[in-house]
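Box 3.1 A note on notation
Throughout this textbook, protein chains are presented in two layers. The first layer is the amino acid sequence; the second is a token string describing backbone geometry. Keep the layers aligned when reading.
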Amino acid sequence: MIKQTIVPFLLLFSILPVNSGAIPLDSVFQTAPPLAGYDKVLILQPNQLYTGGFISFNQTVAVWGNGATIDLQGSGIIAVGKGILDVDGCVFVNGAAAINVSDEVKTTVSNCVFYRNTYGVQH
């Protein structure tokens, strides 16, 4: 009985980063520079916790997660209109739909982990 309780507890702590100073993901989105042909590129730090999501309208956006954890706090990354959303190397926790895109958005999601989200990717 104890093993069953300890394993999920340890799993949760292995997913959450050590750094306690969380950064709002939307603030990273708002200040993200254009790079590599994208309108915005969010380059996340590996042991940093990010919170919340962002909304992209008609933009080409890349999220280079580098293994960072994003606690969506019930929200998600939303992309609408004619755009591109490429997401790589993120750990998504506690989201409604972690990634929610409209039909017109070309989307690539790779090397990501989804934990305790209602939906991983909703299209």
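The radius of gyration is 15 Å. Residues 1-14 have pLDDT under 50 and may be disordered.
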